[in-house]
Amino acid sequence: MTARALLGERLVIASHNPGKVREIEALLTPFGIEVVSAGTLELPEPEETGHTFAENAALKAETAAESSGLAALADDSGLVVPALDGAPGIYSARWAGPDKDFSHAMERVNRELGESRDRHAYFVCALALARPGEEIRIFEGRVDGVLLWPPRGERGFGYDPMFLPDGRSESFGEMDPAEKHAISHRARAFRDLDSWLRKTE
Ligand SMILES: O=P(O)(O)OP(=O)(O)OP(=O)(O)OC[C@H]1O[C@@H](n2cnc3c(O)ncnc32)[C@H](O)[C@@H]1O
Ligand SMILES: [Mg+2]
Q1: In a domain, 73, yes or no
Q2: pLDDT tens, 59-84?
Q3: Domain CATH for 30
Q4: Catalytic residue check, 76
């Protein structure tokens, strides 16, 4: 089967975050399917009550698939800081508060790290694909790096300006989007999705 047959003619991107929707649209381009975002369809934003990235991604994808009757792809992601026992993790969006203020969230990460010499962090992305009448599928990706202070760059979204991926000299906030797509947690999860599609073909 082709990607189109597996994913449907029209796929809902079950996210209300414009930064993510932009990246997911770019990463889906090679699949050649029409996409529409949950925001455009005015779908409700479900409460993220799961305890893992995968559970929250599944919850968002299932809600969107049920309310639209279409296949839906959700992304639950976040920044994991081992020296902070994994925080902010699944609470990454919530650390920015109702105003979605990521300068504030980044300051909190840096403040809580204090003088810690361990500034290692990684981004995780769990993608969930829900198709009407089919079992839900989860795909995951991760990228490791170190936390910078002060943050650098205006590109990307969320915690990007404080994240320097391993082996690179530019933060995610400074990088050209195409470069971020070559190595990001989200791109790696898409590679996992792509290999599943190829196996199923
Ligand atoms: O749930 P949806 O509607 O998709 O949008 P959201 O922003 O609430 O998304 P999450 O619940 O998955 O929260 C993940 C947060 O982690 C951060 N994050 C995820 N991927 C990121 C990336 O590539 N670069 C920077 N920050 C990222 C970003 O701040 C997100 O708001
Ligand atoms: Mg969310």
Answers
A1: yes
A2: 999 999 999 999 999 999 999 999 99
A3: 3.90.950.10
A4: yes
Nearest CA to ligand 1 atom 7: 17
Report if residue 182 sits inside a domain.
yes
Ligand 1 near 155 CB (within 6 A): no
Total domains in the fold of the chain: 1
Q: Is the dihedral of CA 84, 110, 95, 179 positive or negative?
A: negative
- Helices and strands: H and E segment counts in the chain: 6, 6
Instruction: Please report, for residues 76, 141, 145, 160, the alpha-carbon distance to residue 119 in angstroms, rounded to integers and kept in the order given.
Output: 23, 20, 8, 15
The answer, yes or no, to whether the previous bond of 150 is cis (omega within 30 of 0) is yes
Catalytic residue among 76, 101, 144, 176: 76
Regarding pTM above 0.90, the answer is yes
Structural domain range at position 140: 3-189
SS3 state at 169: coil
Residue keyed to tokens 């009448």: 133
Strands 71-80 and 120-130: antiparallel
Residue 156 backbone phi and psi in degrees, to 5: 70, -150
